[in-house]
Write a structure and sequence with these properties.
Annexin_sf, mainly alpha, calcium ion binding, Annexin, 504 residues, calcium-dependent phospholipid binding, 21 helices, calcium
């Protein structure tokens, strides 16, 4: 490969007798100096290797001169189009680089006369082209260059300055953007029970076996163990117990424990899907129906959770959840529950405000703005739309008719349907506040609805118990922990307080 401006020679520039004697047509000084070719002189493999001290002084050669070319600030990054090494390039010879007969032909712009300032194409001594760390002229490196040269950052003599960095881009080599965006702060884990590091179900069942073996039961050991394990650490204990002792853990616990404490312990050893399916089964079977339980579970679970409940319910009880609901409820309340039990709600996070306004108008037209109520329209919107979308619908509804959607539902509906629709609205508006209200109703007044208390404390302890506690103290003026302490007793209270996690 030939260099621009040099006549091609076979095998490069063969050494010839002599050094650089002045020749006719040699290096006439011309205005403009030696303009840089496109791509500059990047250091390339096989090119001028940086030797300690650069090129040693040779007889007749051009040694380092005062006023060399230090790299400019920002340097010239290697670009396509540089001078790759050619076969037979410029090997250093004794006596320097002789000129061929007839000298070098003059070029446009000429070759500047070597002298003070050195030969432009010659690499500076001590480390090649500036020898900055991170490569040729990379910013942030120590500027070395020729001793006695211009101060770093000054333009090179007879050499066009480097183009200024675009102010909209970070400095060459990668810097921080001028306006860094703070990352979104994740809300984080809001449960009260956390994984116990290094928990082993085989060791844990030894503790349970020891607590139940012999005369009496060590309830405190059971409370400490189960109250410090998450659901995914508790559930494997059932299989580990049978593997180790050949006995059924749940049956052994039932024989040792009683009352609400027994119910709470057995609930904690079920997967969330199995626990919800068993609670729905209890709410439906028998003479009466616990409609509030049906609504609580179906209005607060995700699509995936409801589909898992459906699968387990069919496997455990031999009929579909939908069939069980249909045979135990009626009217628009039945339709509401069946819609929720499909687990087919839109779960997109995006909100279309124009569609939210249309839905708000439909709800207004189906209720407040007509004689009677079109329950089907409420059912279609409240059971199918995404939660973020429905929150926007509720805001638009409030602005449109000056009344909260909850109050409109209460005015337009009655009985179980009213309770179900209101629960869906409350759960969508603020799920922790909905559960705080459910807990308060379970404990206030004479007697305690222990099944509700156990279900919420177990099912929400690893989801949003911290948020429920905050909503509780904000709404009722005392902590959930304090209310549980005053309303329950014994080992049952101790384990519930473990699930609560602390006082606010």
């Amino acid at each position: 490969m030939s260099y621009p401006g040099y006549p091609p020679q076979a095998g490069g520039y063969p050494p010839q007798a002599g050094g650089y004697p002045p020749q006719a047509g040699g290096y006439p000084p011309q205005a403009g100096g030696y303009p840089p070719a496109a791509g500059g002189y990047p250091p390339a493999a096989g090119s001028y290797p940086p030797a300690a001290g650069g090129y040693p002084q040779q007889a007749g050669g051009f040694g380092p001169q005062a006023g060399g070319y230090p790299p400019a600030a920002g340097g010239y990054p290697p670009a396509a189009g540089g001078f790759p090494p050619a076969a037979g390039g410029f090997p250093p010879q004794a006596g320097g680089y002789p000129a061929p007969a007839g000298g070098f032909p003059p070029q446009a712009g000429g070759y500047p006369q070597p002298g003070a300032g050195g030969y432009p194409s010659m690499p500076p001594a001590s480390g090649g082209w500036g020898a900055a760390p991170a490569g040729y002229g990379a910013p942030g490196g120590a500027q070395q260059g020729h001793p006695g040269g211009p101060a770093p950052g000054q333009p090179m003599p007879n050499y066009p300055g480097a183009p200024a960095a675009s102010p909209s881009m970070p400095a060459y080599g990668g810097g921080a953007p001028s306006t860094p965006q703070a990352p979104a702060i994740p809300q984080g884990y809001r449960g009260s029970i956390k994984d116990c590091p290094g928990a082993d179900p085989l060791r844990d069942v030894e503790v349970l076996r020891k607590a139940m073996k012999g005369f009496g039961t060590d309830e405190n050991a059971i409370i400490e163990l189960l109250g410090s394990r998450t659901n995914k650490q508790r559930v494997p204990m059932v299989a580990a117990y049978k593997t180790t002792y050949g006995k059924d853990l749940l049956r052994d616990l039932k024989s040792e424990l009683t009352g609400n404490f027994e119910d709470l312990v057995l609930s904690m050893l079920k997967t969330p899907g199995h626990f919800d399916a068993s609670e729905l089964r209890e709410a439906i079977k028998g003479a009466g129906t616990d409609e509030a339980c049906l609504i609580e579970i179906l209005s607060s679970r995700s699509n995936a959770e409801i589909q898992e409940i459906n699968r387990i319910y069919k496997a455990e009880y031999g009929k579909t959840l939908e069939d069980a609901i249909s045979s135990d409820t009626s009217g628009h309340f039945r339709r509401l529950l069946i819609s929720l039990s499909q687990g087919n709600r839109d779960e997109r996070e995006t909100v279309d405000i124009s569609l939210a306004k249309q839905d708000a108008q439909k709800l207004y037209a189906a209720g407040e703005n007509k004689v009677g109520t079109d329950e089907s329209q409420f059912n279609a919107i409240l059971c199918a739309r995404s939660r973020p979308h429905l929150r926007a619908v509720f805001q638009e509804y409030q602005q449109m008719c000056g009344r909260d959607i909850e109050k409109s539902v209460c005015r337009e509906m009655s009985g179980n349907l009213e309770s179900g629709m209101v629960a869906v609205v409350k759960c969508i508006k603020n799920t922790p506040a909905y559960f705080a209200e459910r807990l308060h109703k379970a404990m206030q007044g004479a007697g305690t609805k222990d099944r509700t208390l156990i279900r919420i404390m177990v099912s929400r302890s690893e989801i949003d118990m911290l948020d429920i506690r905050q909503a509780y103290v904000r709404t009722y003026g005392k902590s959930l922990y304090t209310h549980i302490s005053g309303d329950t007793s014994g080992d049952y209270k101790k384990l519930l307080l473990k699930l609560c996690g602390g006082s606010d």
